[in-house]
TrEMBL record:
Family: Belongs to the iron/ascorbate-dependent oxidoreductase family.
Keyword annotations from UniProtKB, A to Z: Iron, Metal-binding, Oxidoreductase
Gene Ontology molecular function: any one: oxidoreductase activity, acting on paired donors, with incorporation or reduction of molecular oxygen
Domain of life, per lineage: Eukaryota
Record PROSITE patterns: FE2OG_OXY (PS51471)
Domain Fe2OG dioxygenase stretches: 143-245
Oxidoreductase recorded as keyword: yes
One Pfam entry name: 2OG-FeII_Oxy
InterPro entries for the chain: DIOX_N (IPR026992), IPNS-like_FE2OG_OXY (IPR044861), IPNS-like_sf (IPR027443), Iron_ascorbate_oxido_reductase (IPR050231), Oxoglu/Fe-dep_dioxygenase_dom (IPR005123)
Natural source organism: Mikania micrantha (bitter vine)
Transmembrane residue ranges: none
Record-given protein name: Fe2OG dioxygenase domain-containing protein
Keyword Oxidoreductase part of the UniProt annotation: yes
């Protein structure tokens, strides 16, 4: 039996916001945020900058190619002929990314403002998730994040195909600015296994839980499977912040999540090593998590 639909959560809610966020992470692994605090003007400006970066000559874009999987510039290729991407692999290295592309002063300012705003929002989310779990502290303090800009070159031949195939994210969570003109995000309903559309709502952002979120929550959070489907031959852009993990510390469930009824499910994991393991073994749909289960589970 399918659930009613992906939750829409008001981030300005005073009472019970933390509990509502935790519930959405557990039941859907996905939700939309309204009143999230990032100006719609800044979101629009960042989309314009994103489109302009993809319009750069191929030889310029390739200056940001990285040998690491899922890093830097990802050109269209035989495996993913509709998809093209840019990544600022550590948002602390934004200056280097901008230098390589010779972006203008205005573009650089927009990128920096956007990254600060969405990183601050991630911090707010982390604190509220802790609060909703009865814990104290700043969950994402000192964690490394990646900003990824995506372009889907949809055409008549791509209609009815996936621009991005079924996958779970390797992050704790992802904050997504989706396209206001071209829908396509679909998540897998936890109960029914059916695809549920996550249609665009003006001025909002989407959050989805990834593998690291499931590990940290001791299996409570749902690392939601999702895909990007092509319904019409229009170019689609999206911008995602991936919140991965601590820079010099492994991820494990807090002791408060572990007791006799809920034994520790996963061994401590380095978020970056886990991400590389997934890529190396081509395990994109959440199954890699099970390989890091403890002997007691």
């Amino acid at each position: 039996m399918a659930m009613q639909g992906v939750p829409v959560i008001d981030m300005q809610k005073v009472d019970g916001l933390g509990e509502e966020l935790v519930k959405a992470c557990e039941e859907w692994g996905c939700f939309r945020m309204v009143n999230h605090g990032i100006p719609v003007e800044l979101m629009a400006e960042m989309k314009v900058v994103t489109a302009s970066l993809f319009d750069l000559p191929e030889e310029v874009k390739r200056r940001t190619v990285d040998i690491g999987p899922g890093n830097g510039y990802v050109p269209r290729n035989a495996i993913s002929s509709f998809y093209e991407g840019f990544s600022i692999d550590r948002i602390s290295s934004t200056n280097k990314f901008c230098d390589r592309l010779d972006v203008s002063t205005h573009q650089r300012e927009i990128i920096y403002r956007y990254i600060k705003a969405i990183r601050d929002l991630a911090g707010h989310l982390g604190r509220k998730l802790m609060e909703g779990s009865g814990l104290a502290g700043d969950l994402f303090d000192g964690w490394w994040c990646q900003l990824r800009m995506n372009k889907y070159h949809y055409c008549a031949e791509s209609v009815g195909l996936a621009g991005a195939g079924l996958h779970c994210d390797p992050s704790f969570l992802t904050i997504l600015q989706d396209d206001e003109h071209v829908n396509g995000l679909q998540v897998v309903d936890k109960l029914s296994g059916e695809f549920t559309p996550v249609d665009y709502v003006p001025g909002t952002l989407v959050v989805n839980v990834g593998d690291i979120g499931k590990i940290w929550s001791n299996g409570r959070y749902y690392n939601v499977k999702h895909r990007i489907w092509c319904f019409e031959p229009k170019t689609r852009y999206s911008i995602a912040l991936f919140v991965f993990g601590p820079t010099h510390k492994k991820i494990e469930a807090p002791s408060e999540f572990v007791d006799l009824k809920h034994p520790r499910l996963y061994v401590p994991i380095d978020a970056d090593e886990y991400r590389l393991f997934r890529y190396a073994n081509e395990m994109r749909t959440g199954d890699a998590v099970d390989l890091f289960r403890t002997n007691s589970s």
